[in-house]
Amino acid sequence: MVDPSEPAPAEPVQQPTLLDRALRPFADVRAGEGGTALLMMVNIFVVLFAYYVLKTTREPLILVLEDGPKLKSYASAVQAGVLIAVLPLFNWLTSAVDTRRLLFGMVAFFLVCIEAFYFAWAGELPIGFVFFVWVGIFSLSSIALFWGFANEVYPRVHGERIFPFIGIGMTGGAFAGSFLAGRLFGEQVSPGAVLQVAAGLLVVHGVLYALVLRRPDVNLVKPEPKQSALRAAVAGFELLFRRKYIGQIAALILLLNLVNTTGEYVLSEYVIALTDEAQRAALAGGVIEDVDEWRKSYVGEFYGNFFLWVNVASVTMQAFLASRLVDKFGIAGALLALPIVAGVGYGLAFFGVGFMVFRWAKTAENATDYSIMNTARAMLWLPTSREDKYKAKQTIDTLVVRSGDVLSAGLVFAGTTWMEFGPRGFAGVNLVLIVTWLVLARWLLQSYRAESAAAVEAEAA
Predict the structure, then answer these.
(1) Using one digit for the tens of pLDDT, what is the confidence trace for 394-453?
(2) What is the torsional sign of CA 262, 88, 379, 34?
(3) Using H for helix, E for strand and C for coil, what is the string for 393-459?
């Protein structure tokens, strides 16, 4: 018989598994967290793998068209118009549909879209412009949905430790996708065959969601009370203006994308000039039979190699730098890294460096964006509600990002039409924008600390 005066035996302390210990060089993974963290990391790896296969495919399909770089810039602006129509439907779905059905429904929808583009390509329909618009929507929606789910799976204090590790999957998948796509185009593999690779990866993506949802440590947040269809549809837009913190996130992401997309235009102009020069040399040597196909392959191979080196740097930074920056400086270390790196790159461009230097400066900017900054963007949502994580985050990561592209398209139009800007002119504009970005980041950090303190008080209550 147990003596009631004796203290109850202590609960057994869970010991870290071999997997938990294996992941510790990359992040502060604690006992019992390794299995779910690894599945989440592999899942975002697959998403980015598929995206970079599609992204590399879209470049030759649009850049070989007449005025390809301008069309590419304008296509990014068109995405914003499409998202204005689509986002209310998505916001309504997050209220009307539970998380499981939302995840699997989105995966199935994008899979059907890929097959539709395959049959359009096989029928020799001109899909370049429409496909470019769709790839941008796919990337923003699927990645934002994943991180909304990740914010639902992990409480704030756990997410701050685990997200740098999950982010390795993003950079690793981007590396794998760009590497494979570049090699496929280098071997003259058709765009249609490359699309089927992406379709297979989406199937794996859905399976991994199913495995994560079966994990015993995954407890999804209870959905908010159902809203009317109209209120749910506009909730994401309303939150941008009603909550100061979310409005600050939106403004920072807008500036970030405006700077990055303008830099992409400058890079595209350099690439087309390089392609023209290489084409003249190849024609003089009599090694081109079909100019259009040769240009597609040349541009596709260049971007495959460019994305490859971006993602080599991204993987390295995410695996060995991201968690250490967060450990030493908190979210500030992750949030301020990109504007500093971008400022150095565009400063060099403003002083007239050549294409090779600009290419590597743009590589550093994109690598920091895809690794360190992506970690910061995910962490910003940790102290927020489920409604914020799905409605407001999806609105920012889709419409606000594309609005940055709209502003960039306007800047490109004005700069090329009225002011005859070259690389130095656009670099100078970006430097001014980066100074504004740094000021806004400081304000956002103050708001993040306030939001985190409020979340701690709510958890204690």
Answers:
(1) 788 777 877 887 888 889 889 888 888 877 888 899 999 999 999 999 999 999 999 888
(2) negative
(3) HHHHHHHHHHHHHHHHHHHHHHHHHCCCCCHHHHHHHHHHHHHHHHHHHHHHHHHHHHHHHHHHHHH
Per-residue pLDDT tens for 105-135?
999 999 999 999 999 888 878 777 888 888 8
What pTM was estimated for this model as a whole? 0.71
**What pLDDT does residue 222 have?**
59
Residues ≥6 apart with Cβ < 8 Å to 440: 248, 251, 252, 255
Q: Tell the residue number behind the tokens 């296509």, with chain if given.
A: 75
Are 442 and 331 in contact by the 8 Å Cβ rule? The answer is no
Q: Which residues contact 76 (CB under 8 A, 6 or more apart)?
A: 132, 136, 261, 402, 405, 406, 408, 409
DSSP 175-208: HHHHHHHHHHHHTT--HHHHHHHHHHHHHHHHHH
Asked if 276 and 298 touch (Cβ cutoff 8 Å), the reply is no
Helix (H) or strand (E) holding 215, with range, is: none
**Which string of b and e fits 337-360 if b means at least 16 CB within 10 Å?**
bbbebbbebbbebbeebeeeebbe
| Residue among 55, 36, 57, 35 nearest 47 (CA) | 55
- Nearest CA to 338 out of 371, 307, 291 is that of 371
Rounded Cα distance between 246 and 397, Å, is: 12
Which segments in the chain show pLDDT lower than 50? 1-2, 8-11, 228-229
For residues 95 and 227, the answer to whether their CB atoms sit within 8 Å is: yes
DSSP 124: T
Nearest to 201 by CA among 129, 110, 140: 110
Which residues, 6 or more positions from 174, have their beta carbon under 8 angstroms from its beta carbon? Answer: 48, 49, 51, 52, 307, 310, 311, 314, 370
pLDDT at 240: 80
Residue 94 contacts residue 386 (beta carbons within 8 Å): no
**Cα first-last separation, the chain:** 38
CB 227 within 8 A of CB 235: yes
Model pLDDT, residue 9 = 47
Residue with the two structure tokens 């800007």: 421
Residue 453 has which token pair?
Answer: 């303190």
What is the rounded CA–CA span in Å between residue 120 and residue 127? 7
Which 8-state DSSP code applies to residue 97? Answer: S
Strands, E assignment, 200-343: none
Instruction: List the beta strands (DSSP E) in 248-321.
Output: none
Instruction: Determine the Cα–Cα distance for residues 406 and 409; give it in Å rounded to an integer.
Output: 5
What is the predicted pLDDT for the residue at 287? 64
